[in-house]
Automatic annotation (TrEMBL), chain A:
Forms an active dehydrodolichyl diphosphate synthase complex with NUS1. This is Alkyl transferase. The keyword Repeat does not apply. It comes from Oryzias sinensis. Belongs to the UPP synthase family.
UniProtKB/TrEMBL annotation, chain B:
It catalyses: n isopentenyl diphosphate + (2E,6E)-farnesyl diphosphate = a di-trans,poly-cis-polyprenyl diphosphate + n diphosphate. Its cofactor is Mg(2+). It comes from the Eukaryota. This is ditrans,polycis-polyprenyl diphosphate synthase [(2E,6E)-farnesyldiphosphate specific].
Length: 316, 285
């Protein structure tokens, strides 16, 4: 039930850990586990392997389709877990664990939302390692929410529709405070993503392991990390290629903005290269400023969501 | 000490890469000539599943192009193979995660998919090579259709669609499998374009941001390219990643890996289809 477990690696595990650490290590690992127990131990192993960020799939929006008893059971379990988290607050602070909860939280009963808000706000200032719990989450809902937020930004006059880009969408996801996962591990032999982090894992190393979660060992984790290391160079190359494409697309979008601008400012004469360059610079700078303002507003909106819930919980 | 660990790590990775190369070489040898006794023994140790059984050898022979008289029986065999599966995917994605793709092998895979009864086949590589050489791929598919399925193969009337949207005219036939050539542009970029469209509508006060929901975004994504979600993606190559393949559409997709698409055999594809056939999707349960 605990969120964090004490303990050290034995000698053999320490040696293996040091060998692995000689190579590139994932900075963010995501897990699709079959079963929810024994997670604290895996979190400890990740910490000992110097993996600072972990994301887990705790409750999918699809799970709401189960029978009422099952759903209530799962939500009760969640209540117990988050209450336990608040009890372990000092221990979590000692280890510097910051808990974030990602998902469409307004789908949950209010008392659970308040509990989650408490847990998130309590551990917010910890910064040694990060645990993201996906709760009432599916990737499609997350992407849709990001689009909705950008549309909200347009409605508020903070950004223009032409500012919408891949980078901006990424910043509007629930996971915007985290880098994309380097490694996604799924246990129990299933070989699908089940609507989990579809956007964020487009260039991650996927490792499907047949071991069942309750039997997951340190060595299984090492095996997955080895797979990551074997794939590292090719995935890096693919990521670079994608980044270049993104940059080109952004440049195209900015050039379209320049064409617009020059058309409005122009007096019929074709603009020379210098004017074009200046206009491009202007478009880029003003777009970046708009985007910053919008992201600030979004961050405040999200913070208010949690602090309002917390306020209600405290006054209740 | 750090140096020692560094050396150990390099050694470990080198061993794993050698093992992978050895397995790949053995697989090739076992296919082509049955292999010597020593090779078969090593293979049994490293790749217990790779030794071809008698039924697999039969399948292997059936995939090699032969005389015209054979094509009819091959077609019937493949159709029967498809019916023998517990479930057949409607849309199969062929994802090539290898450098310098081989058009002939991909064309073979496409033709086999269609022969087995798959209605929708998509082809993807993260460099966009297939998309840039769309017409070459189409020619190759036509050629392999003739080779493997005989002249009647034209009954299938493959519709090869790509991003440009210049769909080819075709006559309506009852069974019309479609081949789609995809690239990373069809992934995140398409989602961004749909998002931009929705935001434009909001800018023009045609819509409110609160109207935006999952089904609306889903419909928008299928407006320009009506691609059903792939039930199965067969990934060719050693890279364990989706490399940008249709992020929105792959939420419930099963991923089966095949070591390489070069000189791929029908039995490799059929093996992947069989693995799909036995998987169970619990959908939230």
């Amino acid at each position: 039930m605990s969120w964090i477990r004490e303990g050290e690696l034995n000698l053999l595990e320490k040696i293996a850990s040091n060998v692995l650490k000689a190579g590139p290590m994932p900075k963010h690992v995501a897990f699709i586990m079959d079963g929810n127990r024994r997670f604290a131990q895996t979190l400890r192993w990740c910490k000992q392997l110097s993996i600072p960020e972990v994301t887990v799939y705790a409750f999918s929006i699809e799970n709401f389709k189960r029978t009422k008893e099952e759903v209530d059971g799962l939500l009760d379990l969640a209540r117990q877990k988050f209450e336990r988290l608040l009890e372990e607050r000092e221990n979590l602070e000692k280890h510097g664990v910051c808990i974030r909860v990602l998902g469409d939280l307004n789908m949950l009963p209010l008392d659970l939302q308040q509990l989650i808000a408490k847990a998130v706000l309590t551990t917010r200032t910890n910064n040694k390692c990060f645990l993201n719990v996906c709760f009432a989450y599916t990737s499609r809902y997350e992407i849709t929410n990001a689009v909705r937020e950008m549309a909200w930004g347009v409605e508020q006059g903070l950004i223009k529709a032409s500012d919408v880009s891949e980078a901006l969408l990424s910043e509007c996801l629930y996971s915007n405070n985290s880098p994309n996962p380097d490694l996604l591990i799924r246990t129990s032999g299933e070989v699908r993503l089940s609507d989990f982090l579809l956007w964020q894992t487009s260039h991650s190393c996927l490792v499907f392991q047949s071991v069942l979660w309750p039997e997951y060992t340190f060595w299984n984790l090492c095996e997955a990390i080895l797979q990551y290391q074997l794939n590292h160079k090719s995935i890096q190359k693919a990521r670079e290629l994608h980044r270049e494409e993104q940059a080109l697309q952004q440049l195209e979008a900015d050039r379209a903005c320049v064409a617009d601008l020059l058309q409005h400012q122009g007096n019929g004469k074709p603009a020379d290269a210098k004017r074009r360059q200046e206009a491009l610079h202007l478009c880029t700078v003003s777009r970046e400023a708009r985007v910053q303002d919008f992201l600030q507003a979004l961050k405040q909106k999200r913070n208010h969501f949690f602090s309002d819930l917390y306020g209600e919980a405290v006054s209740a | 000490m750090a140096l020692l660990y560094g050396l150990l790590w390099r050694l470990l990775l080198a061993l794993l890469r050698i093992k992978r190369a050895l397995m790949s070489w053995l697989r090739g040898r076992l296919r082509n000539r049955g292999g010597s006794l020593w090779e078969r023994m090593v293979a049994a140790l490293l790749l217990p599943a790779a030794l071809p059984t008698d039924s697999q050898k039969k399948l292997e022979q059936s995939s090699v192009s032969g005389s015209r008289a054979d094509t009819g029986s091959r077609r019937a065999q493949w159709l029967a193979d498809g019916k023998a599966l517990e479930k057949l995917p409607v849309h199969v994605g062929l994802m090539v995660a290898e450098e310098e793709p081989s058009f002939t092998d991909i064309a073979n895979l496409v033709v086999w998919c269609m022969a087995v009864g798959v209605s929708y086949v998509s082809v993807y590589d993260h460099h966009g090579i297939f998309q840039k050489n769309n017409s070459r791929l189409q020619e190759e598919i036509m050629r392999q259709q003739q080779n493997l399925l005989g002249l009647d193969g034209s009954k299938y009337n493959v519709e090869v669609l790509s991003n440009g949207g210049d769909e080819h005219q075709h006559c309506v036939v009852s069974c019309r499998p479609t081949v789609k050539v995809l690239s990373p542009e069809d992934g995140k970029h398409s989602i961004v374009q749909a998002a931009r469209k929705l935001c434009h509508a909001v800018e023009n006060k045609e819509r409110s941001s609160r109207d935006i929901n999952v089904s609306m975004l889903d419909v928008m994504l299928r407006e320009s390219k009506n691609i059903p979600d792939p039930e199965l993606v067969v990934k060719f190559g050693p890279v364990n990643s989706t490399l940008g393949f249709l992020p929105w559409h792959i939420r419930l997709t099963e991923f089966v890996s095949v070591p390489s698409h070069r000189n791929v055999l029908y039995e490799d594809l059929y093996g992947a289809l069989q693995r799909y056939g036995v998987c169970q999707q619990r959908l939230g349960q």
